[in-house]
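Risk register update: the risk of archive-format incompatibility is retired. Evidence:
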Amino acid sequence: METFLEILREVLKGIVREISAYIFRKNVLEHKKTTLRRRKQKGGSQKNK
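Archived output:
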């Protein structure tokens, strides 16, 4: 029973390590911008057709 718990603990440790590495990669290394970009306003007068 004790060896089963040790194996289970090691498996859970590996899963947690993989999940935390995935989250770290997504948040830190990809540098995605979280704010939406605003469209640039065109200068000058605009005529409607």
